[in-house]
Amino acid sequence: MVEISRSRWIFVIVLMLLIPATVRAAGPADGAAGAETEQDRSKKESDRTKSQGPSGTVVTEQEEAQISQPKKMPIYRPPLRGAPSGRVAGGTRGLGVDIPQLCALVPEHVGLTVNQQPLLYYFLSGPSALPVEFTLTERQAVYPLVEARIHPPQSAGIHAIDLADYDKQLKSGIQYRWFIALVPDDEHRAKDILASGAIELVAASEGLKAKLKQADAAKAAYIYAEAGFWYDALADISEALAEDQDNRDLLRQRASLLEQVGLSEASKYENERAAAQ
């Protein structure tokens, strides 16, 4: 028994001597783990802290994420009135000549405006040396209100027709149809490349007028689009672009508006212009 007790005490003593050594050996590993945790925290803090912006200014990560996000696009909400008007797009099949695609920049339904002398827009996919003819008619009228030639050349892109140039005003509550045509052969008008759309003048509500009172052209385009006034939304974005022709955000906003009503070719053209800037 004495031998057993002596052996047991020797074991206990050795164990007591080994335990501090084990703890000391484990200490540095625990310290490394602590240092790693601190490093991770430092990295996270660094990620949240400031970084240099493109202009050399200091921005936070949250601000940087906001900068990289695309600008808000105008949302066109079609008016809940009337049936589709049947937008007509110009075709060139069978002519045997290189003629650009022509389209009136209008929705499928009757587009609305608050302007008695609105701007009417059309698109050419390429340049053209052909005469362009513009016609405006009242629905079911026998004779046109306007019939005019626009002399070439015409460049590729979006073009505007201003009714003020023809001293004509729309009347409220009347639907009008307008036509734009490329004329390859004056002797054979059946060969015309024709596009058309419809428009109606509607009085602006007091609420709409209040929203527009303090808005510039770019902001007004959003307001008009939201209220369902196609012609005015497109005109105001185009006005803003006329003052800043290389503005990528405005080009993309106009492209978005066109895409929303199915005008994919014109929208693609605008997006390509934006990408080239």
Principal-axes geometry comes out as globular
Radius of gyration: 35 Å
Q: Into how many domains do the coordinates divide?
A: 2
Oligomer: single chain
- Strand share of the residues? 15-25%
- Count every helix, treating DSSP H or I runs of 4 or more residues as helices: 7
Low-confidence stretches: 1-5, 7-36, 46-70
Q: Helix share of residues?
A: 40-55%
For this structure, the CATH topology of the largest domain is: Immunoglobulin-like
Broad structural category: alpha+beta
- The CATH class of the largest domain, by name, is Mainly Beta
Describe this structure in words.
This protein is an alpha+beta fold. The chain contains 7 helices and 11 strands. A 5-stranded mixed β-sheet has the order 5-11-10-7-8, with helices on one face. A hairpin with a 7-residue loop joins strand 7 (132-138) and strand 8. The longest helix is centred in the first third of the chain and has 47 residues, at 2-48. Residues 1-5, 7-36 and 46-70 have low confidence and may be disordered.
What's the SSE blueprint?
Blueprint: H1 2-48, E1 51-52, E2 58-59, H2 61-68, E3 89-90, E4 102-104, E5 111-113, E6 119-124, E7 132-138, E8 146-150, E9 157-162, E10 175-182, E11 193-201, H3 206-213, H4 217-227, H5 230-243, H6 248-260, H7 264-276
Parallel strand pairs: 5-11
Antiparallel strand pairs: 1-2, 3-4, 4-6, 6-9, 7-8, 7-10, 10-11
Helix pairs in contact: 4-5, 5-6, 6-7
